[in-house]
């Protein structure tokens, strides 16, 4: 290959790397902006979601799930895809996912573990990718979070593994359900309104290291909680991510950049040869 060809190949590879880094948008260093209200600081992330409060139009329930699904899917979703490839039987896959999350996470209070703006946060929610990047199968590092953090992590992993999933908003607690009527060891099988199916949703409780799949805690056996579908369920109405949540680059723009770079390199080589 000539020197020009080598330079062309190098330039094109650089452009591809840049494009890939810009289109993979699921996980990036989140930025948090403070908003002050009657002496309380709300921290708003770059998706416009309040990480310190669960309710309202921009609260983290159930909005935080959209940050790690669809165009934003990244590490947590890919973990689910890995389980789908490795476990062909759905019941075994579901049990393995819950055990995996229980192994690599540890329950911890926000007020003791989350420092934002130099202060401990009484209430905070991490998205699934933030949790997934905080544990490591290589180093043995464990991710610390509370109930909503583990529910969002489980939710994205289960969706990535091919399960219909919902986030559960209960009194002082967040968990999730998956559709798995063929699982034989659940203590309750839930029937959700508007999904067009009978009872077959089972509880996923990741906050305890030994909680089995399908075990609904006694405090929530009587219902009284709200289920928010996540992913691509037909009866789910999920908010669209804001434009700031993703950055993409068009293929035609790439080609223009490539041609420009090649032209500049060619001109420089000709200039040197004179």
Offer a quick outline of the entry.
The protein has 274 residues and is an alpha+beta fold. The chain is 36% helix and 16% strand.
Task: Walk me through the structure.
The strands form 4 sheets. Strands 9-8-7-10 form a 4-stranded antiparallel β-sheet, with helices on one face. The chain is built from 8 helices and 10 strands. The protein has a domain of 153 residues: Coagulation Factor XIII, Chain A, domain 2, CATH 3.90.260. Helices cover 36% and strands 16% of the residues. The two termini are 22 Å apart. Strand 1 and strand 2 form a beta hairpin. It has 274 residues and is an alpha+beta fold.
Please identify the oligomeric state: single chain
Alpha-carbon distance between the two ends: 22 Å
Q: Could you give the order of the helices and strands?
A: HEEHHHEHEEHEHEEEEH
CATH class of the domain at 69-115 and 126-231, anyone?
A: Alpha Beta
Number-wise, the strands total: 10
How many distinct helices? 8
**CATH architecture verdict of the domain at 69-115 and 126-231:** Alpha-Beta Complex
Q: Could you estimate the helical fraction of the residues in percent?
A: 25-40%
Cross-sheet strand order for the largest sheet = 9-8-7-10
Q: Supply Rg.
A: 23 Å
Strand content: 15-25%
The name of the CATH topology of the domain at 69-115 and 126-231 is Coagulation Factor XIII, Chain A, domain 2
What is the CATH H-level superfamily of the domain at 69-115 and 126-231?
A: Transglutaminase-like
Averaging pLDDT over every residue, what do you get? 83
Q: How does the overall form come out from the CA principal axes?
A: globular
Structural class: alpha+beta
Report on the biggest sheet.
4 strands, antiparallel
């Amino acid at each position: 290959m000539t020197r020009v060809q080598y330079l062309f190949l190098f330039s094109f590879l650089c452009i591809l790397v840049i494009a890939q880094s810009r289109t993979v948008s699921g996980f990036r260093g989140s930025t948090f902006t403070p908003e002050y209200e009657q002496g309380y600081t709300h921290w708003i992330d770059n998706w416009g979601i309040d990480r310190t409060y669960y309710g309202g139009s921009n609260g983290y329930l159930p909005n935080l799930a959209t940050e790690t699904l669809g165009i934003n899917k990244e590490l947590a979703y890919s973990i689910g895809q890995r389980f789908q490839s490795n476990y062909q039987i759905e019941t075994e896959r579901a049990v393995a996912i819950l055990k995996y999350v229980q192994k690599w996470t540890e329950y911890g209070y926000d007020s003791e573990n989350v420092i934002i703006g130099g202060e401990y946060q009484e209430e905070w929610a991490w998205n699934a990718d933030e949790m997934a990047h905080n544990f490591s199968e290589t180093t043995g590092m464990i991710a610390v979070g509370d109930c909503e953090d583990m529910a969002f992590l489980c939710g994205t992993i289960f969706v990535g593994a091919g399960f219909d999933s919902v986030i559960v908003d209960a009194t002082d607690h967040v968990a999730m359900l998956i559709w798995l009527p063929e699982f034989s060891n659940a203590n309750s099988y839930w029937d959700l309104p508007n999904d067009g199916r009978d009872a077959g949703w089972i509880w996923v409780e990741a906050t305890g290291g030994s909680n089995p799949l399908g075990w609904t805690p006694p405090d929530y056996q009587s219902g009284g909680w709200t289920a928010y579908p996540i992913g691509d369920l037909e009866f789910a109405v999920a908010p669209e991510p804001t434009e700031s949540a993703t950055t993409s680059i068009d293929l035609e723009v790439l080609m223009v950049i490539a041609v420009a770079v090649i032209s500049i390199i060619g001109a420089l080589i000709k200039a040197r040869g004179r």
